[in-house]
């Protein structure tokens, strides 16, 4: 394996987190960064199925609330149509 150097700029907060994790794992920051990069290549894609551009994901509680509002609206419209 050929080793090369890489210069990157990262936020100070991320550097501090990397340093803390490296110390916790008892290895250098360089080893911590390499470990994390290697692991990132083995992760599954963030979404297993394609998401339509016009779709959104909502928390279950919001979906439940929306369903209740829609059911109430349908009842009201049905009442008006039957009059």
UniProtKB/TrEMBL annotation:
InterPro entries: Arc_DNA-bd_dom, Arc_rbn_hlx_hlx, Ribbon_hlx_hlx
GO molecular function, one term: sequence-specific DNA binding
GO BP annotations listed: regulation of DNA-templated transcription
The keyword Manganese belongs to this UniProt entry's keyword annotation: no
Stated name of the protein: Arc family DNA-binding protein
Source taxon at top rank: Bacteria
Domain Arc-like DNA binding: 7-42
Keywords recorded for this protein, A-Z: DNA-binding
Organism of this sequence: Budvicia aquatica
């Amino acid at each position: 394996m050929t080793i090369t150097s890489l210069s990157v700029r990262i936020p100070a907060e991320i550097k501090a987190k990397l340093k803390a994790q490296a110390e916790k794992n008892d290895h250098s920051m360089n080893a911590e960064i390499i470990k994390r990069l290697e692991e990132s290549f083995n992760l599954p894609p963030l979404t297993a199925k394609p998401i339509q551009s016009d779709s959104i994901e909502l928390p279950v509680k919001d979906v439940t609330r929306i369903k209740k509002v829609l059911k109430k609206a349908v009842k009201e419209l049905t009442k008006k149509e039957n009059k």
